[in-house]
Structure formats: structure tokens, C-alpha cells
Write a structure and sequence with these properties.
Elements lengths: L1 E6 L2 E6 L3 E5 L8 E4 L2 E5 L4 E8 L2 E12 L3 E7 L4 E7 L2 E12 L6 H4 L4
Antiparallel strand pairs: 1-2, 1-5, 3-10, 4-7, 5-6, 7-10, 8-9
Length: 117
């Protein structure tokens, strides 16, 4: 079972138990995160594609880490002009672990308890 979610202007393919980095989201370590922009959902047998989004899919996770990625050096140089500028940048990120991927309103509770008979 997997889904494709959109966050921070990028798209990510996620499965239950995956840990992935996204653009920084507000929150502390341990806070729950829900993704509402689900573009695609597959349960192994069928695939649902949003037009543009799926409303009935529920994806929940929690924040594992708030951090900064490796430093990127920005170096500007113009030859013969004595112009040199060196600048560093560290992009903040949020690491998220996916707890559940499910069809929120589609999954019937009757099947689990056996009261459908």
C-alpha cells in the first residue's frame, strides 16, 4: 500500500513505516502530521488517482526530527574585476515517519467486528 502526497511544492511516494524529509513544517518532535493533498493511492489491487486530489484518503505520521541539511556553498566570481562573494546556506527540514495510510471514510468498521452478516 502506498500513496503520493504533495507538500512543500514537491511530491513524495510514501508507504507505512517510511521516514522521509520534507520542507520545514511547524511542530515539535512527536507531534502528529496529517497530509491532506493526496494525489494517488494504491492498496495493491486498485489504484485511485485524484483529479487533482483525493478527499477520502487519510495519511497520518509523526515528526521524528527537525534539522538542517548539509551546507551548500554559494560562490560568486567575476574574472578580472576583483569580485568574489562566498556564502553558505543550510536548508531546514522536517523528518516524518508515516504511521497509517488508509481510506478514511471508505474502510468500513463492520468488516472488522463481523456485524455485517
Amino acid at each position: 500500500m502506498y500513496a503520493v502526497v504533495s507538500t512543500g511544492g514537491k511530491q513524495y511516494k510514501v508507504q507505512e513505516g517510511d521516514i522521509f524529509r520534507v520542507e520545514k513544517l511547524p511542530g515539535e518532535v512527536g507531534d502528529t502530521v496529517t497530509f491532506d493533498k493526496v494525489l494517488l493511492f494504491s492498496d495493491g489491487e486498485s489504484v485511485k488517482i485524484g483529479q487533482p486530489m483525493l478527499d477520502d484518503i487519510d495519511i497520518r505520521g509523526h515528526i521524528v526530527e527537525q534539522g538542517k541539511s548539509a551546507k551548500v556553498i554559494v560562490f560568486k566570481y567575476k574574472r578580472r574585476k576583483r569580485y568574489r562573494r562566498k556564502q553558505g546556506h543550510r536548508q531546514p527540514y522536517t523528518a516524518i515517519k508515516i504511521d497509517t495510510i488508509g481510506a478514511g471514510s471508505i474502510a468500513p468498521a463492520e468488516d472488522i467486528t463481523g456485524t455485517e452478516e
